[in-house]
Amino acid sequence: MMTFDEARDHPLTSDSEIEARVSDLIGRANQRQVWLLFLDADDVQLPLLIPIDGMPLRPNDSIAEFAATVAASMSQIEASSVIVVLERYADAAITESDRLWARAISEAFSDRSLRLRALLISHRRGVRWFAADDYLSAAAPADAQ
Q1: Distance between the two ends of the chain, CA-based, in angstroms?
Q2: Domain with 78 in it: what CATH number?
Q3: Is residue 54 part of a domain?
Q4: Per the domain annotation, does 142 fall within a domain?
Q5: Given this model, what pLDDT does residue 110 score?
Q6: pLDDT digits (tens, 9 = 90+) for 92-116
Q7: Cα dihedral angle (53, 84, 112, 11), rounded to 10 degrees?
Q8: Contact criterion met (CB below 8 Å) for 11 and 44
Q9: Residue 137 — φ and ψ, nearest 5°?
Q10: Helix/strand/coil for 25
Q11: Phi, psi (rounded to 5 degrees) for 121
């Protein structure tokens, strides 16, 4: 695993770098939870990696509280953006539950002017990118990849 000093020397300036870092740090899914990684203004990962377990299948009214907690964390550590990883033990296909979570997170973060740098899925075989087009499109089929 990369140390903070090593991470500081390797800012995450591309989507592929973010996906590789998440693969290294989180990797394959073991349970249902959300991970938060924070970046500074220079896209350097800050030394705070937060797992949050107890994630329900579908988002509920607590999403606003979740966004408020993320905002407070970002303020305390002077983060400029956040990477969110949805971990769930299933295959790589994007599910309707994934889309609902991603939309809810995106909207709640937008309401608080939080910069969501990336959203990824940790699944039982690895990590995949979760593009905004995959979760913001209301017409997307539930089992699309």
Answers
A1: 29
A2: 3.40.140.10
A3: yes
A4: no
A5: 96
A6: 999 999 999 999 999 999 999 999 9
A7: 140
A8: yes
A9: -80, 115
A10: helix
A11: -120, 125
Number of domains in the chain: 1
Mean model confidence pLDDT for the chain: 91
Q: What gap in Å lies between CA 109 and CA 80, rounded to an integer?
A: 13
Sign of the alpha-carbon dihedral angle for 106, 53, 46, 16: negative
Note whether 39 and 45 are within 8 A (CB).
Answer: yes
* Helices of type H across 63-123: 63-77, 96-111
Task: Kindly state the tokens that stand for 44.
Answer: 């350097």
Strand partners, 25: none
Burial letters 60-95, b for 16+ CB under 10 A, else e: eeebeebbeebbebbeeeebbbbbbbbbbeeeeebb
Q: pTM of the prediction?
A: 0.90
- What domain range is 60 assigned to? 4-136
Alpha helix stretches (DSSP H) within 85-140: 96-111, 132-136
> Residue 89 — φ and ψ, nearest 5°?
-85, 85
